[in-house]
């Protein structure tokens, strides 16, 4: 059972030597995308997540942890009676600004706190800058230009799904289309689109902008394109299917580690298989892999490793590739930066039938490959052979 939520008792605690402002400025200076504060019996560990991965950067005393927790809760009006908390607040200091999304979960040692940092100045990237191959980009644009149906961007959390969704909507804005996006929260500014922020007002339901209420209002605006942010529950999934079947081109994100798995995830969220088969036009699977550090990568003989791998397809690995050893430039990690990989799964007549019949993700993927899809795993393997990606990243995505 979680411990009682910590509360500071003196003004000195609120003036901790590690206040929230200093913590956020330090994280932004490190290029962090998230801060994780994990409670321990005597305090808390402090970790940041960036392109270099997750790294512990310090420990907090119990007093520092208590003060920081209260500081965070006060910023977005958290109420002590709630066991799980979510919220957000805007941060600005020393010329830097961002939106901070907060998640607080009770654990045995106290509250685990995650702060996700999103730049308030974030602008959508054009599709040509996402890192797709030219063939993949052109195929994506053709489906986007089709005008109706459901397009899903499938990625695990933190794997670039928001970026791809916003780029797709930006491409669609560049034309005589009425584009409306319903989001929770608004993470990327989309010039030319009407962005609606879902907002819950405690104890005043009539003032809340719920997803369902925003969707009903948006339908009266005759949208050509409807962006629905992240499909996270039965309500948002049902809304996506309803919008797509009513004639609007509907583009949304879904948490899944591949295109075919997005179908299973949609069904898990409550999608009726037949309705999903009728509305789904394309799934864009996406993942990010670590890139070998250019300054310390050396040749590695893969033959001994490949023979020990738990799969039979070792032929491509009978050669040499490269592996980062760790240096000052990459902070000793051996990798620096990320490489995006995509797989586009158009829903053909054959794959649509499989979706309606309740086929497994592996069956749907096999059909997609027969229809011409290049899987992410295959694309990552090619980058292993060129030395850009370490073999461990290929294994991680199997």
Explain briefly what this protein structure is.
With 398 residues, the chain is of the alpha/beta class. It folds into two domains: 109 residues, Beta-Lactamase (2-Layer Sandwich), CATH 3.30.450.90; 266 residues, 3-Layer(aba) Sandwich (Rossmann fold), CATH 3.40.50.300.
Throw out a few tags for this protein.
398 residues, alpha/beta, Rossmann fold, 2 domains, seven-stranded mixed sheet, six-stranded antiparallel sheet, 15 strands, 33% helix
Any idea what the CATH architecture of the largest domain is? Answer: 3-Layer(aba) Sandwich
CA(first)-CA(last) distance: 36 Å
Number-wise, the strands total 15
Strand content: 25-35%
Mean pLDDT: 85
Q: What global shape is seen?
A: globular
Binned, the helix content reads: 25-40%
CATH topology of the largest domain: Rossmann fold
- Which strands sit side by side, in order, in the main sheet? 9-8-10-11-7-12-15
Which parts are unreliable, with pLDDT below 50 for 5 consecutive residues or more?
A: 1-18
In terms of structural class, how would the helical and strand content be classed? alpha/beta
Integer tally of domains: 2
CATH class of the largest domain: Alpha Beta
Largest sheet: number of strands, sense, barrel closure: 7 strands, mixed
Count of individual helical segments: 14
**Rounded Rg:** 23 Å
